[in-house]
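TICKET #2291
ISSUE: user wants both folds in one file
ATTACHMENT 1:
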Amino acid sequence: MKKKILFLFLIGLLLNISAQNINPNKNLKYTITFLEKDPIIDGNILGEKIWENVTQITDLKQIKPDYNSLVSEKTSIRVAQTNKVLYVAVICYDNDPNKIVISDSRRDSDLNDEDSFLFIIDTYKDQQNGFLFGTNANGMEYDAQIDNEGKGNFNANRQQGGVVGGTNINWDASWEVKTEIGEYGWSAEFAIPLRSIRFNNGENKTWGINFQRNISKRSETAYWANLPLGLDLKRLSLAGSLTGINLKSPKNLKIIPYTLIQGINDNLSSTKSKSNASIGGDIKYSLTPGLTLDLTYNTDFAQVEVDDQQVNLDRFKLFFPEKRPFFLENAGQFSVGSPGEIDLFFSRRIGIGQGGAIVPIIGGSRISGKVGQTNLGLLNMFTDEVELNNGNFIIKNNFNAVRINHDFAKSRSSIGGLIVNRNGIGDNNDYNTVFAVDGKLGLGKKAQISGFLTKSSTPNIDSKDHAFKLLGDYNWNGWNFMAGYTEVGEGFNPEVGFLVRSSFKKTEFRILRQWRPKNTVKFLEVRPHISYRGFRNFSGIQETGFLHIDNHWVWKSGFEIHTGLNFTKETVLSPFSISKLKIDPGIYDHKEFQFVLYTNPNNRVSLRNRSYVGGYFGGSRVSSSNTIALRIGDKFNTETNFNYNYLNLLNGKTNVVIIGNRIAYSFTPRMFLQSLIQYNNVTKIASVNARFGWLNSANTGLFIVFNIVKDSDIFNLYNNQSITVKYTHQFDLIK
């Protein structure tokens, strides 16, 4: 009862402090210039007369290290259009061009650790969703879809990247960027075909827009539309306005076929060696400027990087993010729930069976996009029958998802619904359906209340098959308050979703203060905070309690440490095992110390560490997760990960080790060689995934993929080995 009263109090507090609709960038406007002819896209802006009559934006302001000060290096931005293309040109002046940092030239690599320029456009002016583009001084292509201002849907915990965090970097549009480095610094020209993005037709339209420049030598970030502490470029409700845009309906029809040849040598199967070839592909057609039809046949994902190895040190499910491009494109349209905790639609259920078994995808279709201010998503997929190694079968299945969500303009509010269904083909009693409604209410620019209500339908389950969540969040000027309540019924069963744990009532809150002391030479800020999450079952027993008290200490150089204390409580009702050590039923109350260290990621060598020392299920745990990153020039990058857990429990001792190494070499921004080598001492499985890519437009091109899986048997050189050669090409039939 006390926790519910606290929750209601915090929700009331949010309503009270957010009643005022404040937008410091309300009057920040820039009028686009219409060009009669297309500029030459070569990165040379100073030498091209076509840009001389285009109005400049120069007044960027820092968010770090010197908040609200003008950008330390002159920056000139111009925006223009023709009937078919949006152009953005930027000159990033630098008084010492020799210190320009280029860390990674692979498409969609992180741009925060190098000299870079990014911009975001809100083409529907709904203040929630948009498209993000960026580059570095070497002309790397970065693009992403932004959903819900980059926050993901309703998850108050730390977000993972990709679609889970509301930033879908796996969306790849067809566009062009060229850069130039000179004595003045560096410059970039972007050409974004209008048919690559979505918008409403019309004359004199207004989009939301913001720009970001990163200056590596000062660990500096600056925006055009300045933002309060704690917010970033994806906060579209605080973007400036791009006015005077004239838009006509572009036609778009693309055919993207592929051909694939694969050789497999498998010592674990009766047929040790085999080869196969296959063809398939996708069709993409713009039904309207905002609505796209995608068709796929014999869908293949051979070029996708393998999953990171994980070892379960708890009694709940492990989460593996989606990496397959077809399902990641426009994935935000179908995202309802708490990502990584309660996903009502989780696309990895399509084509991936129990234990990671590959289930052939026959094909399917998707309609996604926007009609006015209403988001629409329709998905229909078919998977084939497959025999598993244990002799069991997965029958043919049909998967459907229907998502409708209406955004209320200029309010950060929306309401929507979702239906997800799986039908076993040939078995009328093999089905699962999930129904949901969701929404969010923007409280000015500072706060938001969001939530969802859902019910599942499964044969032989007819009670307590519900789930819901209500979350309030306030974020402004370095203050963040959050409070939420989640309930998952005992019979709730989202078979085409992800549920990290079943049957619980969860209460959570967080209070964080981001504070920057004045008149400090090297120190940037501190972030003290406290957070709590507690899980109870429907008998009132607290199964998990986690109270976190922490402070982040951040220097202007990029060096950062976190010092935290965790108070944990676990109630185990049924025995389970961790790495063959039995955990008996009981109540386990513990404390642990948490330490995090980051060195400056802009350096050629950088380090990330996260460590825990304290009690664990009646014993103790020492846990350390470490990453060493090395950059040589602008082409070679490598990361070595070493995760170590030592458990001294009531029923024995064990250690768990996971080692991984990523290596990437970029010959050009569109040609790369990369590998992922992994090993863990629990399954004693070593794996190698090596990929060569030579990209054309929109991440199509030639891919050569080599995989090795090896167990501890020294008499076998390998257990499974495969090599795949895949070529895919995009044919643009309407230009």
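ATTACHMENT 2:
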Amino acid sequence: MGKVKRYYIPMVMAFDTETTSYKDESGKRYAWMYIADFCKVVGNSYKHTTFRKWDDVREYLDLLSDSCGKNEYYVIYVHNLSFEFQFMKDWIPMSDVFCRKAHNVLKCTYRHIEFRDSLCLANNKLATLAVNERLPVTKREGDLDYDLIRTPNTPLTETEMGYLYADTEVVCEYIKKKLKEYGNFAEIPMTSTGEVRYLFRKKLGKNLPKVHDLAVKYSATTMELQNLLIAIYAGAYTHCNYQCIDKLLTTLHCWDFSSDYPYQMVAEKYPTNWFKFNTKISTAEGLLNYLYENYPPEEFAWAMEVEFYGLEAKHCHSTLSLHKAKHISSDCICDNGRVNFANYAVYNLNEIDFDVVSKFYKWKEISIKKCYISHKEYLPKELVAVILELFKQKTELKGIDEEYDNYMRSKNRINGVYGMTVFDILNSGIFFDEVSNKAYLREEKTFDDFRKYVNNPNNYLWYSIGVWVTSYARRMILAPISRLSEDAVYCDTDSVKLKNFKPRYAKLFKVVNNSIMERFQKAMDYHKFSPSEYEFFDKNGNQHFLGVFEEEAPYRRFKSLGSKRYIYEVWDKKKHRYVVHTTVAGAPKDMAENHCTKNKGLVDGFHVCKYYEEGICGCPKPCEHKKAPLGETNDEKFANFTNNFVYEDCKLTHFYLEDDCSLIVRDYLDNLDVVHVKSGVCLEKAGFSMKLADEFFDFLVDRIQFDDVDIYKYFRPNQYTK
């Protein structure tokens, strides 16, 4: 018997809680809710209903449920449902819990109440969401001190209540827009990627069965093949030239590849009709020659398991990721997570990846253990047409104020096109154990589950699309790097940063762009699109291209400590001055930049006057503020961005708790209270240490000349002596 269809009541509602995290004298962690808010949209106003205890929350939900008909349901959105769920689950028995992974709940149900996660749908924190969506309400930031101990009986100020109300009002306004867009709650997808899937199904319309049949035909026919494709899949290429680690570089030229993944889907070819290649050719060299001659990579896809002997990088850029190796010898040498050398390594590669490896590595011997072959074709015209339409909308609507919402939708959807291609059904089997009410368990998926997903009439994609998209994208970004070699400083997904700029480098990117546009045009001609469908112009009549490298504003200064750890200085046209930006994976962006400024803009003991910087000082006379010398405060940021630098209390660490006890707690107002604690999430401030990994340090010691710098003292002051 199938699931009973749900009829959703068109009432916009949001739910949020505020919680306290607590440590007793022994160091044991606890957490509890001290206030909860239900926000309901009534006409043009909000109705807030707040509670201090979970028993009262449940009673309210029971009243709502009792008002529903047999198959009627309310939908209540929660921004980061996973957090609230950890508190709710022991007080309010949930069913139909849908998870993507452990502690990542997208949806759950209590009687006639369906809770959904608005964070997974919006893919933005509340403050950003309010700005990007131009909502009539905004999140209040900085109003609530989370370090203060509060209990369900702690009196709350108007400011504290206002903070809570603003959060649920932002969610309500966002869901109002989504409800207007989709018409009813049944149609609103669970995630931002789901929105793109929904749009494509709608746009495909009567062509959906045709594209679905192709997806069924082109999907893996055996478990071995599907597992091989999963193993081949890899993400974007991000890496720093090891010769540039911790060096202050000046005048970097930057190129970004626009709309990278959508371009690859439109302009490149993808595998169809797989078959296993059985060969009697005895040597790897002979086999490769046979493959290149009879199954050229331009027209055929290869899915291989390859053994390398004596693998060694040719350049200062290593491309093979250590964690993607199926097997690798213990003597391997790593360059910040990339394999620089290994006597023995086994990788799963497609023909695009192998082409890249052959440009960046040399080896003594190879052996091909498995090999599947497939003919390659362009994606169906119907799919390509939707991508072109989205990019056209994004280009034409940009900068038109009255079309802002439509522009943001088209922008988000073109950016989300790739995400829907890499859903791995075999690794998606996470479920919440409603019996124990604690465990997140993995459900082993079978190949029958995979084929069931493929055969779903709503499916119009096949897994290898996503695998080849990222392979094409990596090849695209690495093509100029292979020619630029040592002058290529840093690469991140779709961008390249260069030092020692030479005019021939600009010519190189021009040649690359010509090749990119030729491939694009060839695909358009194949599908017989008219120019009006693939030529894109903005509101001012300027032409834009889907794909091509575009030169960005140069960096005045740049320093990196490895992948996803860098600081740069660039001219800001709006502020009319140089500004500094930092990227540090694992640390909040704003915090990283702030912590690099120890003196907070002090010059000779005086605060730098922002008005003075702009030449319009509006300070009281006599002005005791000073103008900072050009670059002085930015110098400080670069100097502080170095190895072993510690960001204090820059992020929150989550501790998931499973308790059932009562505590006597004293709140920040010195009131004693008894708090009944069950499951929850304890949030603790944590620091972040930016430290080179030991193996990366050893790699640098062997390869870099640091002039007069004592590298051991510099990078490992507490561990090494010269």
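RESOLUTION: both attachments delivered.
EXTRA DETAIL ON ATTACHMENT 2: The chain has 22 helices and 32 strands.
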